[in-house]
Amino acid sequence: MKEFFGIGGYQRTPEGYFSWQHLGFVTSLMVLMIGLAVLFGLRNREKDAARKNRVLIVAAILMDSLEIFKIVILCLRGDDPIRTILLNLPLFMCSIQLISLPLAAFTRGRLKAAALDFVFIFGILGAVFGTYFAGQNYACYPVLSLDNVFSGVTHTIAGFASLYIAVSGMLRMEKRNIFITFSIITGFCAAALVADYTIPYNYMFLKGGDGTPYDIFYKMLGENWLYQTIIYPIIVLLLFYLYIAAFYGAFFLIQHIREKKAAKKQQ
Q1: With 0-12 CB in 10 A as exposed, 13-18 as middle and 19+ as buried, what is 79?
Q2: pTM of the complete model beyond 0.90
């Protein structure tokens, strides 16, 4: 247990990024994530809104509880608890779900609808990036360790919530909430950028890719200070905007095609 929690430092050599151990572990999480989302989604599809929402409540509580427990352990095994907390703020792309998922589960009205959209749009993306493309984790820590197991589970809970929202019929995707979705990601990026230069750190990967696909753009800009400090964060934010726009566009296109087919059948 000391080795799993990293008490005194990990003694095992990390298996490595994209090792078969890494890919095997995260794939098993993905299979479990998809299976449970489909199972609970289909089971509750015809239930009332309160019944559907219970699953999101459990997911939100479990996700945040695991993250808090992980931070407590990290504080206990480190020399500077304050620094540890500052380095584990919910300001990464994936950890936004620590806030948006509880909002989707516990709020009502338009805020709930917008939060459901946000979890749906970014849950799967975060699950994939936080497992298969988490080079900053799997290159540094053993696969079966606190850092990777808890991270993998919390990321796939976000992915589970995203799929469950779609399968269970909770999805809204209203056009009037698009602005709120853009505002949420803009606000988080602004907060992350402030934290990056005050802590300092690399929240939302606004100061570098750290082994993620963002490295492609960071390296393309070369060693120019202006490009890396100003242009690169703008590129990251624009990629988020592009992803949101593409997601909404694809969703509305599919919805339009389905409505046309349904109209033809009625004729």
Answers
A1: exposed
A2: no
